């Protein structure tokens, strides 16, 4: 499976989905980067249902850019982390809410 290229259109789609998912949650809730990727790679057949994995690297890249600009906070175990260097599962939230609760 080939990684999704990070185009201007892809960046805009990622940001739109990220904002929509956070808006659906309460103010102190977080989302997983895979939720964004799954929304972007959504499809009805078996192949399409796995396309979300191709989105993960670019979702993490855009999340890193947004975190660096203080638009979002990325946490792991409730503590802020740099998504560009941390390994393992992380959560994305609003800057004022990300460390208060997850999901």
TrEMBL record:
Signal sequence, start to end: none
Pfam family, one: DUF3253
Highest rank taxon of the organism: Bacteria
Protein name: DUF3253 domain-containing protein
Organism field: Salinisphaera dokdonensis CL-ES53
Classification lineage: Bacteria, Pseudomonadati, Pseudomonadota, Gammaproteobacteria, Salinisphaerales
């Amino acid at each position: 499976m080939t990684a999704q290229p990070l185009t201007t259109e892809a960046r805009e789609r990622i940001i739109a989905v990220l904002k929509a998912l956070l808006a659906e949650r309460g103010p102190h809730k977080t989302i997983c980067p895979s939720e964004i990727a799954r929304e972007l790679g959504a499809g009805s057949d078996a192949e399409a249902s796995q396309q979300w994995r191709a989105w993960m690297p670019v979702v993490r890249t855009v999340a890193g850019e947004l975190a660096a600009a203080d638009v979002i906070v990325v946490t792991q175990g409730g503590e802020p982390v740099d998504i560009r260097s941390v390994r393992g599962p992380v959560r994305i939230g609003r800057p004022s809410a990300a460390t208060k609760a997850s999901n």
